[in-house]
Known about the structure:
The structure holds two protein chains of two kinds.
Chain A: H1 11-29, H2 38-52, E1 61-63, E2 67-69, H3 71-98, H4 102-121, H5 125-143, H6 150-181, H7 186-194, H8 201-219, H9 227-234, H10 237-262, H11 267-289, H12 295-315, H13 323-353, H14 364-367, H15 369-383, H16 389-403, H17 407-433, H18 446-464, H19 467-486
Antiparallel strand pairs in A: 1-2
Helix pairs in contact in A: 1-2, 1-4, 2-3, 2-4, 3-4, 3-10, 3-13, 3-19, 4-5, 4-10, 5-6, 5-10, 6-7, 6-8, 6-9, 9-10, 9-12, 10-12, 10-13, 10-19, 11-12, 11-17, 12-13, 12-16, 12-17, 13-15, 13-16, 13-18, 13-19, 15-17, 15-18, 16-17, 16-18
Chain B: H1 4-24, H2 28-52, H3 59-89
Amino acid sequence: xxxxxxxxxxxxxxxxxxxxxxxxxxxxxxxxxxxxxxxxxxxxxxxxxxxxxxxxxxxxxxxxxxxxxxxxxxxxxxxxxxxxxxxxxxxxxxxxxxxxxxxxxxxxxxxxxxxxxxxxxxxxxxxxxxxxxxxxxxxxxxxxxxxxxxxxxxxxxxxxxxxxxxxxxxxxxxxxxxxxxxxxxxxxxxxxxxxxxxxxxxxxxxxxxxxxxxxxxxxxxxxxxxxxxxxxxxxxxxxxxxxxxxxxxxxxxxxxxxxxxxxxxxxxxxxxxxxxxxxxxxxxxxxxxxxxxxxxxxxxxxxxxxxxxxxxxxxxxxxxxxxxxxxxxxxxxxxxxxxxxxxxxxxxxxxxxxxxxxxxxxxxxxxxxxxxxxxxxxxxxxxxxxxxxxxxxxxxxxxxxxxxxxxxxxxxxxxxxxxxxxxxxxxxxxxxxxxxxxxxxxxxxxxxxxxxxxxxxxxxxxxxxxxxxxxxxxxxxxxxxxxxxxxxxxxxxx
Amino acid sequence: xxxxxxxxxxxxxxxxxxxxxxxxxxxxxxxxxxxxxxxxxxxxxxxxxxxxxxxxxxxxxxxxxxxxxxxxxxxxxxxxxxxxxxxxxxxxxxxxxxxxxx
Lengths: 494, 102
C-alpha cells in the first residue's frame, strides 16, 4: 500500500506541540514574563493552530493512512483551537491569583487541544486511543493542579482512577474488534462487518458493548458518569470549563466518527442500545441537577443532561444521509459556545468573590449587570429557549432523531429541556431577586468581558441565523460519512 | 500448537480479576495495580489475535507495545496524584477521600 508521508499535513499539531514546549520554557527562563503574559502567548499559539488548519479546508487526503485530513478534521481543528483560545484567556487572571506553575498549566492546555485534534482526525483505532489518552492525561493533571487544595486532589484522583479503568475497558473492546475484523482502520472494519459475520457475533457484540462503555465513561453518559460531578467540583474553574467543552467535544468527535464510519453496518444492532442510554442520561442529569447547591456541580449535572441530548445524534445515525451527524455536530458547537459563555461569566465572578455556591450569586445583577445578563443568556441557550443557540440546534437534532423512528426519544428530550429550564431559572432568580452582600459595583475586567461578548455574539448568531454555521458543519459531516460509503460497505436503498 | 482459546481464556480471567480488584480494593495504589492487570490482559489478547488470526500484519503487536508504554505513563501519573493526596491527607484509602459528595 502506498503511504502518503507528507509531514506538512500535521502543521497545526506541530504548532501546538512546539507552543506547549515553548510556553514551559518561557516560564522557566524568562521570569519577567511569568504568569501575566503566558496566557496570551498560549492563546496566540492555539489561535495560530486554528488558523493554519484553514489551509486544508475542502482537502481530502490522509497522512500514512492513520490521520484523515478532510473537512471533518478541519472543522474540529478550528473548533478545538478556538476552545483553547478561550480557555487560556479565561485562565489569565485565575492562574495569576490562585495557582502555581503557570508554564506547565498552559502547556498542558495546549497538549490537550493537540490530543483533541488528533481524536477527531484519527482514522484508525491505535491513533484514536493514543490521542484520547493524551487528552485525558493532560486533563487528569490539570484537574489536580491546585496542589494544596484537597478537593482538587480528590477530584483528580477520582477522575484518574475511573479514567484509567475506562480506558482499559475501551482497549479490551478494541482488542475484540481487531480480532474479529483483522484491522484497526475504520473503513476496513466497516468493510469486514458488512460481510457475513455469523461466526463472530459474540465477540463482535462484546467488543461493541465494551467500546460503548469506554467511550461512555469519557463523555460521561449514565451509568458511567460517576466521576463527572467530583472532577468538575474539584478542578480549578477554568479547567472545569475545559473538561466540559474540550473533553466532551473531542469525545463526541471520536464517538461520532467511530460509529459513523466503522460500526455503521451494524446500526440496527446498537441503535436501541444507544437510544436507551441517551434517555437515561438526560433523565438522570437533569433531575439530579435540580437539587444542587454548588454552581460547578449544577453545571456538571447539566452537562450530563446535554450528553443525553448529544447521544440522540448517534442513535439517529443512518447510512443513507449525514443529517444526524451534522445535527449532532451543530448541537455540539452550540452547546460548547453557550457553556463557555456560562463558564467565563462564572470565572469572572469567582475572580471577584472566590465563592461558587449558588446562593453566593445573590444580587449579582446589581453588582455586575452585564455579567448577570450574559450568564442568563448562556443559561437560556443551554435550556433551549428560542432566540438563543440552544433552540435552533436542539430543534434540528430532535427532528433528525424523530426521522429515524425515535420520536419517543425526541419527546423525552423535549420534556427534559423544560426540566432543565427550571434549575437554570433558580440561578437567574438568585441573581436578579436576591439581596447582594454589599452594594458596591465590581471593577470591570475588559479582557474577560471582551471574550464573554464574543461568546454571547456566537450564541445569538447560531440562534438567529444558523444557516452559515450549519453549512460549514454539514460539509464536515458529509465528508465524514462519505468515507463509509467509499469503502463500498453501505448500499443505499433503491 | 496451543489453541488460541487458551490465550483468550487466560486474558479473560486476568481482565476479570482486574475488574474485581478495581471494585473491591480500597487502596488507590492497589486499584492502579488492578488496572495494570486489565491492560496486560488486553496485551495478551492483541498478541494472540495478531499471531494466530492475522500473522501477515504487525498491527496487533505494535498495539501491544503501545499499550505497555501508555500503561507505564499512566502509573507514573497516578502515583504522582496519589502521592499528593498522601502528603495532604496522610492516607491513600479511597474511602477516606470523601470531601466531594452528591
